[in-house]
Design goal:
This protein is of the alpha+beta class. It folds into 3 domains: 3-289, no CATH class; 299-413, no CATH class; 421-479, Arc Repressor Mutant, subunit A (Orthogonal Bundle), CATH 1.10.10. 40% of the residues lie in helices and 21% in strands. The protein has 15 helices and 16 strands. It has a 9-stranded mixed sheet with strand order 2-6-7-10-1-11-12-13-14. Strand 8 and strand 9 form a beta hairpin. Helix 2 packs antiparallel against helix 3 and helix 12 (421-433) crosses helix 15 (467-479). The protein is elongated, with a radius of gyration of 30 Å. The protein starts with a strand and ends with a helix.
Length: 480
């Protein structure tokens, strides 16, 4: 392709406050339509907005976590447009003076490491939503649900620094991980808590001036973002190659067809006739407030990954998996606090058996019946030679099913590891006597057959034989 792709993203992050940004109505999802409204979010005459303090706290934390400058003074503005689910006829947002500016995030991929600029993060209220359907005895209709109207949002606007769909997805995933780690957003893509508008344009390679952009509106899936951008790149390239011109417009992505379609012409800032909201005084944030919010920041994923590798010798891959979600990282660290000498073993069990059980049962890690205390108790039994790693899997499954302590399970099930060399030596002799052909193969140079002998001994001992002792005695007999 003879064009360079230019992508900028506008991400809407729905905040996890219990109430709306300018009133006390609940933000709970999925309630009866129009049951979470009041004169403020219904825009009844005389109703005045009152700013949600926690929403400001969350905005500051997000700005700090994305390397932004926090504005000492920011101003709320009225963004004027008319739509059935916008009862006031305008949206309270921020325009010239947003709360956060000039930040950045670093993304990694096949392109190496790349810094994506963040132009601004501003606060605003969400609109309601239209529900399309039919009532008995009526024609196709649209209904307005204003429960979501007034829900607090942060809009994170990137610089046009991304040059591929993969870079855009990497940036989105990084931002998603950060806001979920902070606890300012639940990150639920299906419920629209984290969604983005993608601005895509093409320009001839070597040209400095940007091409005409099209905006793909409200995409709420990483996969769909990638597909939508890739389709839009192909559409614009075909259009330019045929001598046509790209029209500045807003488009929608159709997940069924994998294509974008025109929605409306793209508005410019002047179309919204922004002006300061006369009902809200300027928001002033002093240095003490900023530092108080900085103190509330958790250790973010990137810093955690680096610490896991430096302090516990974990691989980059293991550190990335363990820090992908904050509850998983917290669980891992709780285990390491209880048993510092076994960080690598803990990592393996958390990423392996624990994650498998969580996925099979659709269970959140906070609800795991195998607590850090139980998991590390089991690992201490392995460390002491009481049970083998193979027996430990049986113990783990039993802990998951019953919540019982590992020592109790081992005692009740008779799972103590056999470390009596005499008993194991007898089993080894029986296995070798019954496997003359394999013995001949091994002594003829086929060392791969050694695993067969180990398996047979472990099977004969019902998994209780000490694996190290089994290996030692087998080699002694085979090479003697």
């Amino acid at each position: 392709m003879n064009y360079e792709v230019v992508i900028g993203l506008e991400v809407h992050v729905q905040l996890t406050t219990k109430t709306k940004i300018f009133c006390g109505c609940s933000t709970a999802f999925g309630q009866t339509p129009n049951s979470q409204t009041c004169p403020v979010c219904l825009a009844l005459p005389g109703a005045l907005p009152v700013l949600n303090y926690q929403a400001v706290e969350y905005a500051i934390r997000t700005g700090l976590a994305t390397n932004c400058t926090i504005a000492p003074q920011s101003v709320f503005a009225r963004k004027n447009y008319f739509y059935p689910d916008l009862p006031k006829g305008y949206q309270i947002s921020q325009y010239e003076l947003p709360v956060c500016q000039h930040g950045w995030l670093d993304i990694e991929g096949e392109w190496g490491s790349k810094r994506i600029g963040i132009t601004r993060i501003h606060m605003e209220e969400d609109a309601g939503k239209l529900v399309h359907g039919e009532l008995p005895g009526t024609a196709q209709s649209s209904f307005v649900d204003l429960n979501r109207a007034g829900t607090p949002l942060l809009e994170v606007v990137s610089e046009p620094d991304m040059r591929s769909a993969d870079e855009a997805v990497a940036y989105l995933k990084k931002l998603h991980q950060i806001v979920v780690y902070l606890g300012v957003c639940d990150g639920n893509l299906e419920e629209g808590s984290f969604r983005c508008d993608a601005n895509v344009s093409l320009r001839p390679v070597g040209q400095e001036q940007f091409g005409t952009r099209a905006e793909i509106k409200n995409v709420n899936s990483f996969r769909f973002v990638k597909l939508a951008i890739e389709h839009e790149i192909e559409r614009q390239a075909d259009l330019l190659d045929s001598g046509g011109k790209v029209v500045q417009e807003t488009r929608l992505f159709d997940a069924q067809t994998g294509m974008t379609r025109s929605m409306r012409s793209k508005e410019e800032a002047h179309d919204y006739r922004y002006f300061p909201d006369p009902d809200l005084v300027p928001l002033e944030i002093d240095a003490a407030w900023i530092e108080a919010e900085r103190a509330q920041l958790p250790e973010l994923p990137e810093a955690r990954r680096q610490r896991y590798q430096a302090d516990w010798g974990l691989s980059a891959y293991d550190a990335e998996v363990l820090t992908a979600e904050r509850p998983l990282a917290d669980y891992f660290e709780a285990c390491v606090t209880l048993l510092p000498s076994q960080a690598k073993s803990i990592a393996n069990w958390v990423m392996g058996e624990l994650t498998r059980k969580l996925n099979e049962g659709g269970v959140n890690i906070a609800e795991s019946p195998v607590t850090p205390l139980l998991l590390t108790g089991m690992l201490k039994l392995i460390e002491a030679g009481t049970i083998s790693g193979k027996i430990a899997k049986t113990v783990f499954d039993e802990m998951w099913a019953t919540g019982h302590e590992p020592a109790r399970i081992v005692e009740e099930k008779g799972l103590v590891q056999v470390s009596d060399s005499g008993a194991i030596e007898q089993i080894v002799a029986e296995v070798l006597a019954a496997s003359a052909a394999q013995v001949e193969q091994y002594r003829g140079g086929n060392e791969k057959v050694f695993g067969f002998f180990v398996g047979q001994v472990m099977k004969a001992s019902k998994g209780k034989a000490n694996p190290a002792l089994v290996n030692e005695l087998l080699k002694k007999k085979l090479e003697g």
